[in-house]
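Re: the multi-chain job from yesterday

Posting the exact lines I submitted so nobody has to dig through the queue logs.
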Amino acid sequence: MSHKGIGASIPRKEDERFLKGRGEYVGDLFRPGLLEVAFVRSPHAHARILGITRPIKGIVYTAADLAAVPPIRAQINLPGYRATEQPILADRKVLFVGQSVAMCLAKSRALAEDLSEEVGVDYEELPPVLDVADALRPDAPRLHEDRPDNLLSVLNAEAPIDAIAAAAPVHVTRHYTNARQAMAPLEGRAILAEWNDRADQLVVHVGHQNPHVFRAALAIALNLEERRIRIIAPDIGGGFGYKAPAYPEEIAVCWAAMKLHRPVRWIEDRFEHLTAGASAREISGTVHAHADAEGRILALDVDFAVNIGAYSFWPHTGAFEAVQAIGIIPGPYRIRHYRARSKTVLTNKPPQTPYRAVARPAACFMMELTIDAVARAVGKEPHEVRALNLVSAAEMPYASITGKLYDSGDYPASLRSALSAIDLPAWRLKQAAPRADGRAIGVGIAMYTEHTGISTNTFGTMGIALMPGYEQANARLTPDGDIEVAMGVQNHGQGMETTMAQVASEVLGIDPGRVRLLHGDTGLTPYSTGTYASRAMVMNGGAVAAACERLAERMRPLAAHLMQCAAHEVGFSGGRATGPGGATVGFGEIGRLWYKTPNELPPGVDPAGLDVTAGYRPEDDRGAFSYSTHVAVVAVDRDFGSVEILDYVVADDCGTRVNPMIVDGQVLGGTAQGIGTALYEECLFDASGQPKSVTLADYILPGPTEIPAIRLLPTETPSPKTRFGIKGVGEGGAIAPAPALLNAINDALRADGVELGAAPATPDRILAAIEIARGARAGAAP
Amino acid sequence: MKPAPFTYHRAASLEQAVALLAQGGGDTAVLSGGQSLGPMMNLRAARPSQLVDIGRLEALRGISVAEGHVRIGALSTHAAIEDGAVSGPLGRVLARVAAGIAYRAVRNAGTIGGSLAHADPAADWPAALLALDARIHLRGPGGDRAVAIDAFLAGAFETAKAADEVIVAVDVPALGPTARFGYVKFCRKPGEFAEALGAVLYDPGSAQARVVVGATGSRARRLPAAEAGLAAGLSPAAADIAALLAPVLGNPSALVLKRQTAAVHRALQEVLTDA
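And the result, structure tokens for all chains:
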């Protein structure tokens, strides 16, 4: 057997079914007597519900029916945070367009939608608050009338930086905004709930990244013991964080299945997703950078606001975005004086939830555009200012000003690698020469370091309902000599059915094709907080290795018995147990001996058998830091305001790569989503809070024609903290494209006097900036 | 996103289709490729009580060459035109326009007749066929009639077609050997609605010149002053185009005017620089 363990780019095992259209999603399930759900949703951003009229016939539930179900309430131990109470179906007020007010059940979704049109809701409209500034006005309408204002939380990292800042020779101040986005997975949220009398369980098939945590949410909501709930997450058409929280609609569906004792399903459609699910990335802020004349940043002062929408979601809470941003804004740079202040603000928009890399794209955006602004101020190339400020390899491990420990890496080498691939001097020459098509050329850089495998140390003090700890995996030898591995995370695009089998292969020497992965099912797997925070490969990789090693220890005396050698002489390779003198024995023989002919076993074997659970937590679990440099080259059309990406390079380091091909896929996919953040995706609302981007005709996602041939320059700096040196990689690609592309656009339009600080850089924003700059120059002219 | 209840009729003949439309009143919609009507019905933004599916009508199919023009059956798909269903220089022009419509999956089902009947202000065919001086053939209870496209296009989603009429075919004049076609469309990405559109036909041999602006928010419009200049072989400056466009576009924003000016200007440059 050629090496198929860690480091081998073997094809993904799960692709067999996906490429043949044989995946199994919630929408593929059939049940006799199934009822489909359509929700009656609020047409108003802010209104009081005066009354609800039900149709004469048909199954319709409102908040009055769900009186026994408590509202969603998410706690976090942060000073200045107060939880919100989100009703499962709106009762007294609606706080965003799309909020569910009633649920209608019928034999088909079309019939359920017909029924929903017969529900009459009488509203008294209230003035909405949509942006942060409006929400914070003293006389602003309050969303939650039991609160003194519209603040969900205030989080500050205070430090005495004023004296250092004042003494610095260079000062740069910039304001930045990141638009609200929808996560737009191919498959929206999807749930099918049914009561199983034999198991005495509520069995829920749901597109969810964290089945065990979702079970806890249902237990609270339905007042049901966790043993009486089984969550099965089948194939999922993209998660990206959207399928990590517990949403009111999902709880309502489970409640109805129990109430009716019938299977009930809800499939979120695209319209629902783009209205009620418009829920990520809306962060704005002001950065003051104080630097020396060379461009060394001496102090950084950041003030930002998260527009969190109407409610704080379960389990992380809406305060989590600010926690993430404050911790990582200094990025890969040696910044020793740092102050950050944040407000997380409630508005009449859908609740914002974590999207691939959570607040880190906004953090990177603020930092990286500021670096370029400092470079302009001191008259240097942006890469020179980066090189001056980057933490060096010699400084590793590096304790950041925010208390993070950057475990390993060579950030300056990453920058050099990406720059040499892009050939900056050649582009600078092209930039200076006039082009036949009149377009302006620009080059932009963005770098980040990403806290992956976020674990107990980070979450420990927060007291939220999701608390990662020791991750477990179960491994067992089947009677015919193959391996089954069970784990509590859920695989939805990460390729874990392949990579975890590669870890088992690495330990046991068995072909990954003979390793079957069980995941995403609370009935079959050890507890896990799930797949999020770029943690599964770090944590479950360690757990699967530990379980396979423990299994090997159990197999070793059996193999020794078969080969008539000492247990310590037994090794594992080529899918067989090996002994002295070239002796080998197949796993099938070991399985036969244990399961089928135990009469042949010698006395004194461990009766615990060939089915073990073992766990993992890094000795130092402060996280493994992946890092990356993105460099983009763009051409900007000054008449249309459009941007073409001419070249795009990613120099990425995520430590040991278990399957380099899958890592490449993760980086490419994340970068594609980041290009959406940079140039296309924006949930627009009108002044009354009506969403304006409600179909994929007006919410623009990048497609194959918008994604360039991204060039990857991977390196591997193994983490000294984790098993095999693995660092997480799932989220990273999405972090840097917006700042890289905005920096490139600003570089292109430098002669026009344009410096954009808002993403996405739509043609309208670009053209408007060109016009404003032109106007400013005309006004300044004598 | 499921449609409200409706009654579906598959028309067996053109006569039956017209009769069903006449009986149904304004609440009946014609289903051709379904690429616009389908999503609108799924969003319940369109709620016809009846659909008359004309998709199987042979009378609306086929492409034929006649004296001085090509007749394109209303059911011809964008994909068929993209793939060269119309031959010769005109066919290449039509193929270029068709290839820029939405995505191939949409082009496989969407039809030229459906696009004209829907009259989306941002659509390609109304602007391109206005530049090409097409005529629209209609069948109604009173028989057949033909309408010049300039008279056919009435406004956003509005045409001269009566509710009980069906588009049968489109006649497009053949192009002379010296004819050139300029076409510049700006949209956020392929498949998105056009935000600016310039279409120009110029034949120095016959001094024929048609200059059209599309994606206006209303119907596509000709720019007669630009046409007169072009017929004389003149290349107008961007500022002059902007001055012509401003009244046609009805007090446009600076950004819209800038983009539309660029689209028309570039389309003009295309026909003039090839010369």
